[in-house]
Tail specific protease domain-containing protein
Amino acid sequence: MKYKLHPVIIIGFVMAFFVIGAVVSSCKKTKDTPAPQPPTDSTTLASKSKDSALLDARDFYLWYNQIPSGFNAQSYKDPGEIMTALRSYSNEPGFGIVDKWSFGVLKTDWNQLSGGIGTVSNLTTSGDFGMSVFFRVEGDLRVKLVEKASPAGLAGIKRGWRITKINGNTNIKTSNSDFIVNAVFYSASSTFTFVKPDGTSVDITLNAATYPQQTVYLDSVYNIGAKNIGYMVMNSFLGDTSQINTDLQKVMGNFATRNVSDIVIDLRYNGGGYVSLQQKLADYLAPSSTNNQLMMKETFNDKHQNYNTTLYFTKTGPLNPNHVFFIVSQSTASASELLINNLKPYMTVKLIGPGNTDGKPVGFFPLSAGDWYVFPVSFRSTNSANSGSYFNGFTPDAIVADGLDKNWGDTSESCLAKAIKYITTGSFTAQGLEIYKQDPVIISVNKTLDQSSFKGMIDVRGMKQ
């Protein structure tokens, strides 16, 4: 079968329909013996979907040559389980097994998620409350983000609110995380008791629904002394790319009009998305000297070297900031890390957050497997300095707690406050060495609370021909 991958990034969502052709046997027709029809029962279709998923992986997986010859696709429930199993065959020299990301999803679910109609908590179309949570410390569960158009957003719930009771249960501790996950992310309806920043409590019942997702959560300009500081919270590089490009143009245009000298981009929960959108944001943030300079390269396995791609900066707008700060966390992944890596050779970028980023310098694109799309890791990315093996993530320049007790844009929130301190004083600390160490239990449980959110670097470039 012949495939064509275009050498440019398509801005917009175009699914890559790689269809495994069916082999149809022919027989001589007679009047009394009609030609047999190929079976179409659900069992046969499911079987073909699993075979197709494995064939795609053997062709495009970055570590395809590590997949055992005896790997049996039919022993797994569906293409999603196959992708999860294949992660074990991703030994990277110097790092060991690295793949945490290859996945499969029903086409109906992916079409909603990728277009910005979906949920914050899972790859299904059943909906959720539009609210994610993290533990600040033991026993202190906070709302970390709320989708504006979701049930939680429409109910007026804000980041930073504390949850003290769920469905009548006051055991809001890390040891009860399974209950919390099910109640917050996988329930059709749940009742929460929230404590607001002013100390008042409110009980709110939420019913799950789907909703349009918001990519740019907040943008502000702070005038502090002689500094005009631009701040933007970008929660994802997924969604309606046309709308997101319009939003970015508006935000960056406002920054330019307000003579912003320093920029803080909040990516702390941004799990990635389209390569084309990080490219657009990089073009706004990069200095004018980068125009037409190498931004990044994508490299496929040795079967598909002809698909390798080189991208260049196209400087957009007049912004030329003195500093660019990225607020990050363990949830910062893939296309978000790609943005940071692509800017590093050309300007000084500072990272602020509680710990290392996810560490995903690889990407994928959708491959069709029946009524599923599978996403085996298919390419690695490097910047203009040929740097790209950040499987351990990026370490922040300032290790600072995630200010889960504050809403977006609050200048007293620990991470934003740290960026403002550097911009106004020239250093992160006034004197001595500040040390922040995360509780390992909190880290582990918050990873569980975060595991269902999307993490990916998607290059939508493939089309069947």
Residues 1-36, 119-125 have pLDDT under 50 and may be disordered.
